[in-house]
Give the backbone structure.
Amino acid sequence: LVAKDGQEALDLVKNDPDPSHIHLIITDQRMPNLTGVEFLKQTITIIPKTIRMILTGFTDMDAIIDSINKGQIYKFILKPFDANDLKVTIQRALESFELEKNNLELLQVFEKFVPKQFLGRIAPEGLQYLQFGKAKSEKLSILFADIRSFTSLSETMVPQELLDFLNTYSQQISQVIHHHHGFIDKFIGDGIMALFDRVEQGRAFHAQDAVQAAIAMQVTMSEYNLRRKRHGLPPIEIGIGVHTGEVIVGTVGSEDRMDSTALGDSVNLAFRLESLTKNYKAKILISDTIYHLLDKTQFHIREIDTIPLKNKMQSVVYEVCDADAPEILEKKLASREQLEKGRQFFYASEHEQALECFKNCLSIFPQDVMVSEFIKHNYFLDQVSTNDEV
């Protein structure tokens, strides 16, 4: 493509249906209508990967520096030039373009196995500098999701059906996680571990992102189950645990086979919260750490239990109720105050008052399995009259 000035050249680029086929631009600097630097500067957003060269007799040093900074120039060649030198320079420029293109394609394939958020941490200088055993510690939000009763479900499918189901499920969940600024660390059978790391203007948004993603995942599953119901298939239920804390991000394995991962107590707690969703019949459980980072006006949350951690520490467990059906959410919110009072009485060893509060909860929401389970597993029958009906 040839143009007599910068404006005509810019029009050629803008009107091209696929300007990415333009691998190299050579332009003069002093031209009518639009200078070479201004022309190249305006092409950056259209064809950012294209090699740019200026061939000119204009030797002002400030202009050279300006052209390099603004036009992202590969080479600034002064007149008079040697034709063979110019030919070699162009050849090397095109080889550089092809190398960059191949590296980008390789990176895109590699990112299907290792998220780019991990690569930015373990190989910031490029794939060729990926190091085994490299690790760093930072504060992230961790989300675990798992399909309930997956073993029973998988026994009803032939291998291909099972694989198709897992791929369909994973694709839908992955889209939700990516939409909320998260990325998949790994797929663990029917489970998913995701990390959230968004920090903008010094403020960590990843806790909010992770909980919003958990809610959206449950909503997506409800919609997915409607489609399954139309085909006569059983519904799929998932439990989700979310925690924020320090994690070790790095590579594990050996020199010839390594994997990226996140490790540490924070990861273990997120996994434990997901496991507890089965006990409390809850869709989403979060730790007290992540609870205190949230904007409470955006969520409907209730405190449901305290669990022991290492070193004699404890964590309060909260249920995020926003993914529940409206009628269930209404009842949970109506009984929330009695639930909190009951827990306070229980841990103060005032068991009869606690039981009375829990009965009040069940009178508002008789189907609240979590309250019934709490009563059952905290030995109320040993502490109060066995004639009481719960």
User: Anything to note?
Assistant: Residues 83-110 form the longest helix (28 residues). The first strand starts at residue 24 and ends at 27. The chain has a mean pLDDT of 82.
